[in-house]
Amino acid sequence: GGKDRRSGLILTIPLCLEQTSMDELSVTLDYLLSIPSEKCKARGFTVIVDGRKSQWNVVKTVVLMLQNVVPAEVSLVCVVKPDEFWDKKVTHFCFWKEKDRLGFEVILVSANKLTRYIEPCQLTEDFGGTLTYDHMDWLNKRLVFEKFTKESTSLLDELALINNGSDKGTQQEKERSIDLNFLPSVDPETVLQTGHELLSELQQRRFNGSDGGVSWSPMDDELLAQPQVMKLLDSLREQYTRYQEVCRQRSKRTQLEEIQQKVMQVVTWLEGPGSEQLRTQWGIGDSIRASQALQQKHEEIESQHSEWFAVYVELNQQIAALLNAGDEEDLVELKALQQQLSDVCYRQASQLEFRQNLLQAALEFHSVAQDLSQQLDGLLGMLCVDVAPADGASIQQTLKLLEEKLKSVDLGLQGLREKGQSLLDQISNQASWAYGKDVTIENKENVDHIQGVMEDMQLRKQRCEDMVDVRRLKMLQMVQLFKCEEDAAQAVEWLSELLDALLKTHIRLGDDTQETKVLLEKHRKFVDVAQSTYDYGRQLLQATVVLCQSLRCTSRSSGDTLPRLNRVWKQFTITSEERVHRLETAVAFHSSAEKILQECPEQPEAFNEMEQFDEIEAVGKSLLDRLTVPVVYPDGSEQYFGSPSDMASAAEHIREKMKLVSLKKQQLRQPEATTPES
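Above: the chain's sequence. Below: its structure in C-alpha cell form.
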C-alpha cells in the first residue's frame, strides 16, 4: 500500500529461512502485478526484497527473476541485507554493474537506512516505518473481492442468457429451456448481499482511521476495486430485476396454463361423465321406496359434482385475483375462461337442482298416493264389514265416521291431483333441459304412470262412494228400524201405563146417574186414547217388518214386542169392558133408584108394582157382587180395580142408596097395611 517518491507502488517480497519456490513466487508476482491499473503500472514499482532471514543465493535468484517477470515496471530494487552481510559474495556479483543488463537499479541497504530511499510513512513497521498494514485483512478482503467478482460475472452471464432468451426466444424455446434458465448456479440475492457488504467495507476503510487512530489512505487496488464492485452491483441489479420480471411473467404464464388445464378438466368432466350421469337418471320411481332410492343415487351424483364445484370456486378466485392484477394481455383470455367455466358449472348445477326438485315432487306425490290408498283400503274394509250395531246411536256414530272418512278421501284425492299436476308441469319443463338427449319417451312413461295412479285412485274412490251410498241407505233404514222398534216398545209401555191407570185410578162409580154417565163418557175417551196407542204400535211393528224385509234381517225386538202389545191390549180390553159393564150397571142402578126415590107418595099408582124395588135391589146386589170380583185375563192372572178400601168406599155409596130404596119401599108398604085394618 505504500508509494515511493515517484508515486510508484512499493512491492515488498519477504524471504524466509525455508526454501522458497520460485514458481510459486513467480505466480504470486504475476497476480499482484495484475491488480494495479495501467496508470499505476506506468509510474513503475519499487521492490523491497527483505533478505534478512534468507540466503544470498536466494536473494540473487529473486532479483534475477524480477528481470523476467516485471523488467519494464521495476524502477528500483532495494535488497535489505542482514546485519551480518554477505561480504565475499558481494565481490563476486555487483548489482550496480549489472544495471543495464537487468533493466533496473539494485541497491543493498540495511533496514535502518531504507528511509533514505523511501519515506517512513510509506514503510511498514518491519522496516522502521509508520504505515499501518494487516496482510491477513488485505488477503481476506481480496479473497472476498475475487469470489464476488467471479460469482457476479458468472451470474451476469447466466442472467443475461436467461433474460435474452426470454426476450428473443419463441414460446417453444422458452418451454424447452425452462429448467435450465430458471436455475442460476448461485443465488442472486446472496451474491448481491456479498457485494453490498464488500462495498460497504471498502467505503468504510476509506474514511475511518486505523485502530490506533492514525489516518490511513486505502491502497490503489482497493480504490480500484470500489468502482468495479459498484459496476458489478449495478449490472447485477439490472439483470436481476429483469430476471425477476421474467420469472414473474413465466410464473404468471405457468399459473395461467395451470388454470387453463384445471378449467378444461372441470369442463370436460361436467360435460362428459357428469352430464352422462344425469342422462341416465330420468325416472321418478313408482313408489316411495323407489323415489327414495333415486334420491339416494342423486345425492351420490351431487357429492361427486360437489368436488368439482369446489375446484370451480377455487379457480374462480384465482381468475379473479389475476383479473385484479390488471395485465392487459391476459384479460381477454382470463375472462373467456371464467365465462366458460361459469356457464358450464351453472348449467350443471341448475340441472342437478331441477332433478332434485323433480325427485322431491315425485316423492311427495307417491307419499300422498300411498296415504290415499291406505285411506281407501280402510274405507273399503269398513264397508265390507256387515253392520251389526246395538242401537240407533251407534249407527249414527258409524254413519258419521263413514262420512268423515269419505270426506278425508275427497281431500286426499284433491291433494293427489294437485301434487300430480305439479309433477306433470315439472316433467313438461324437463324437455327444455333435455340433458343433451331426447327425453320424450322417458317423459311419456313418467306421465303415463302419474296419470295412471290418479285415474286408479279416482276409480277406487268412485267405487267407495257407490258403496258408501248403499251403506248410507242401509244404515238410515236401520236407524229407522231401531226407531220404529223403540217407538213400538214405547207404545207398549204407554198402553201398559194406561192399563195400570185404569186399574188403579178408574175406580169410582159415581154418586148419581149424572156423575156416572160423565165417568162413562170419560172412560170411552180413555179407551179411544188406548186404541190410538195400540194402533200406533201396530203400525210401527208393521213398518219394522217391512224394513226387516228390505234389510234382509230379523228384527231383534219385533217378535217380542208384538205379543206384548197384543197381550197388554187384550188385558186392557178385558179391563175396559169390565169397567164399562160396571159403569153401565151403576147408571141403571142410580137411574132406577133415583126414579123411585123422587116419586111422590100421593101417587100410589106408581108403586103398584113392587117388582121395581126388587129389580133395583137385584141390580144393586149384582153391582156390589161385581165390585168384589177380580178381572180375569186369558193367561189366568187376576187384577182388582183399586185397593180394597177404594172398593169398600164405592160399595158404601151403593149400599146407602140401596138403604134409601129399601126405606122407601117400607114407607109405601105401611099405608097398604093400615087400609085393611081400617
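The longest helix spans residues 440-505.
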